[in-house]
Amino acid sequence: MAGIYIHIPFCKKACHYCNFHFSTSTKQIEPLVDCLIKEIGLRKDYTTETIETIYFGGGTPSILSAEQIQRILLAVKENYIVSNDAEITLESNPDDIAADKLLQWKAMGINRLSIGIQSFREEDLLWMNRAHNASQAYDCIKLAQEFGFNNITIDLIYGVPNLSDEQWKENINTALSLNISHLSCYALTVEPKTALDKLIQTKKKEAVDTDKQANHFLILMEALNNAGFEHYEISNFAKPGYRSKHNSSYWQGKHYIGIGPSAHSFNGDSRQWNIANNALYIQSINSNILPSEIETLTLHQQFNEYVMTALRTIDGIDLNYLTERYGNAKYLHTTMEITKWKDQGLAIVSEKNIKLTSSGKLMADGIASDLFII
Hints:
There is one protein chain. With about 375 residues, the protein is an alpha/beta fold. The protein folds into two domains: about 1-250, Aldolase class I (TIM Barrel); about 300-370, Orthogonal Bundle (Arc Repressor Mutant, subunit A). It is built from 16 helices and 15 strands. The strands form three sheets. A nine-stranded mixed β-sheet has the order 7-8-6-5-4-3-2-1-9, with helices on both faces. Helix 1 (about 30-40) packs across helix 10 (about 280-285), helix 6 packs parallel to helix 8 and helix 12 crosses helix 13 (about 330-335).
């Protein structure tokens, strides 16, 4: 199994917290789409595996016309073996969702929508500088469902300074009332060099409260567990049968191809990433040059990445796989180093695997880094 990620680096507005690669100028959309299609062909020898997932991310992929998305999909199918039941996800903003687009997306085979809701509260959306309003956040989901999209995931952000515990519960309950099958929920993160970082430094916005974020996460886990969702990755919750196949492939160490500026590719042994500059990307692709750097991963690096991703998932670290793939020494290292976290009630260790408890999930990154081999 392999997946293809296609990065669409355009947005109508710059959200204050975002550090992904994008541009609010849409002048280069058409030439960039042409280059995405060309890169798809240039990378066709990267894998011979069947493509099981195609993911349009960004940026805001829903900013493209239906014709542009269709051309990209056709290029993928012309250059790769694509499964007949491939999961095809399109990230969309609520303000882009309309009846005509939904019909077109459905007709071209898009079968999963990832909608950037972030919050159902007008105050939060204004605070984040989102392009949509609270009414659009609610109405777009109902509309998508009316047009036959039943595999919908939404993003929600918690830990926003002006978001109380009760208001966060209301956001969760609104999502549940809409019969959403999948939620991706993220703590507000202040990334360096973002607008939010500058606004906090200049005292124009309140700083993030990590204790509040931790409490919001505990509220989230309890609410979605009670609603029958699987907490299958730290930030991801799904009804049975609705896990993201594409994102799961990342966490399972499967191979993927990244198309577009800033996109990453992984073949098991090395990682490649494209230049995060639209103009230079277009110039390189038009010269038949892949604008990417490559890093060959050492066995230690592969081990550390496995530990980091596996601990974030419902299955945890598979001790049999760890021993077979990385050797007995790393098995002994891992089972020894996890002991102190187990004794604190933050990890559960069995003969088969190592998993984090609900409290342990609050410290997932720290616990993982403690298991790393430097």
